[in-house]
């Protein structure tokens, strides 16, 4: 055996080791490339959550900024025993039920209508989606001018019809329905676009079979379309419920939570506790309780979705 052969045999284990390392890196390259993004997401999402928990267990106000005393679960218990919290949750439930319910009905009706159109549905879809693209603050300001008692176009048409003006945004009876109407105007397009995509993805065979069996359009809708759309409907409802619970911009611009507490939803009372009363510990505890409530609702919805599958 010559010297060149001995050198080649000596270098062979190191070469194989390098190849095995390269194969290992190649198999896990996609996960390695995700590490920076995962670290960034951990910093962006996990840190605020942990800091919020830290705030909730301390009596953090302007008077105790430098050395807040530890209070444990006192803020959580205070939230659970606060009548104002349950009132705001009740208003939030009305807002979510009324707004999301209307958005689903209108969005599904529009999706069914547009799905039947053969030509020009692209421009119609773009027109319907436009309200969703507007900033919520701008939407609130626009509708505040529309509902204005003295100069708003809404009351102008009422006077044209011979009816009395209505102070929608300063009335205990009409303030919450007015905010629901504004939210419905902006977010019905979301329901529409999601449900339209779901309708476009449905197979044609069940509808052809229903037509051959002589099913009416109403029967086809109830017994074919809705069952096939169940998963899409659940996803759309979960996303909108999670968004509607934390709506703040529109209500803040339209009514500021008033008149009185007529529109003081959970997001409004959270803002009030944190940035008006500067009780950051209580506001953090309130945010935790709200997150748990929304998480439970979403868990039930997702469980229903996967149980169906």
UniProtKB/TrEMBL annotation:
<keyword id="KW-1133">Transmembrane helix</keyword>
<dbReference type="InterPro" id="IPR035906">
    <property type="entry name" value="MetI-like_sf"/>
</dbReference>
<feature type="transmembrane region" description="Helical">
    <location>
        <begin position="251"/>
        <end position="270"/>
    </location>
</feature>
<feature type="transmembrane region" description="Helical">
    <location>
        <begin position="29"/>
        <end position="50"/>
    </location>
</feature>
<feature type="transmembrane region" description="Helical">
    <location>
        <begin position="124"/>
        <end position="143"/>
    </location>
</feature>
<feature type="transmembrane region" description="Helical">
    <location>
        <begin position="220"/>
        <end position="239"/>
    </location>
</feature>
<dbReference type="InterPro" id="IPR000515">
    <property type="entry name" value="MetI-like"/>
</dbReference>
<keyword id="KW-1003">Cell membrane</keyword>
<keyword id="KW-0812">Transmembrane</keyword>
<dbReference type="GO" id="GO:0005886">
    <property type="term" value="C:plasma membrane"/>
</dbReference>
<keyword id="KW-0813">Transport</keyword>
<comment type="similarity">
    <text>Belongs to the binding-protein-dependent transport system permease family.</text>
</comment>
<feature type="transmembrane region" description="Helical">
    <location>
        <begin position="282"/>
        <end position="306"/>
    </location>
</feature>
<dbReference type="GO" id="GO:0055085">
    <property type="term" value="P:transmembrane transport"/>
</dbReference>
<keyword id="KW-0472">Membrane</keyword>
<dbReference type="Pfam" id="PF00528">
    <property type="entry name" value="BPD_transp_1"/>
</dbReference>
<feature type="transmembrane region" description="Helical">
    <location>
        <begin position="89"/>
        <end position="112"/>
    </location>
</feature>
<protein>
    <submittedName>
        <fullName>Sugar ABC transporter permease</fullName>
    </submittedName>
</protein>
């Amino acid at each position: 055996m010559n010297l060149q052969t001995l050198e080649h045999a000596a270098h062979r284990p190191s070469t194989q080791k390098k190849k095995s390392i390269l194969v290992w890196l190649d198999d896990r390259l996609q996960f390695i490339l995700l590490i920076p993004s995962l670290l960034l997401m951990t910093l962006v999402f996990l840190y605020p959550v942990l800091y919020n928990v830290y705030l909730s267990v301390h009596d953090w106000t302007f008077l105790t900024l430098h050395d807040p005393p530890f209070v444990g679960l006192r803020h959580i218990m205070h939230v659970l025993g606060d009548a104002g919290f349950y009132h705001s949750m009740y208003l939030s439930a009305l807002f979510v039920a009324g707004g999301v319910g209307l958005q689903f009905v209108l969005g599904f009706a529009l999706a069914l209508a547009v799905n039947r159109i053969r030509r020009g549905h692209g421009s119609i879809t773009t027109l319907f989606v436009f309200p969703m693209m507007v900033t919520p603050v701008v939407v609130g300001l626009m509708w505040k001018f529309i509902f204005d008692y003295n100069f708003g176009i809404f009351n102008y048409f009422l006077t044209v019809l011979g009816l009395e003006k209505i102070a929608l945004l300063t009335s205990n009876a009409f303030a919450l329905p007015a905010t629901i109407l504004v939210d419905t105007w902006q977010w019905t397009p979301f329901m529409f676009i999601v449900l339209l995509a779901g309708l476009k993805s449905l197979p044609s065979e069940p509808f052809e079979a229903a037509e051959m069996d002589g099913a009416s359009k109403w029967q086809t809708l109830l017994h074919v379309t809705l069952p096939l759309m169940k998963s899409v409907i659940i996803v759309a409802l979960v996303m909108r419920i999670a968004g509607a619970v934390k709506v703040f911009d529109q209500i803040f611009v339209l009514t500021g939570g008033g008149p009185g507490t007529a529109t003081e939803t959970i997001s409004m009372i959270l803002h009030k506790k944190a940035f008006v009363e500067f009780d950051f510990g209580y506001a953090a505890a309130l945010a935790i309780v709200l997150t748990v409530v929304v998480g439970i609702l979403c868990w039930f919805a997702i469980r229903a979705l996967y149980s169906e599958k």
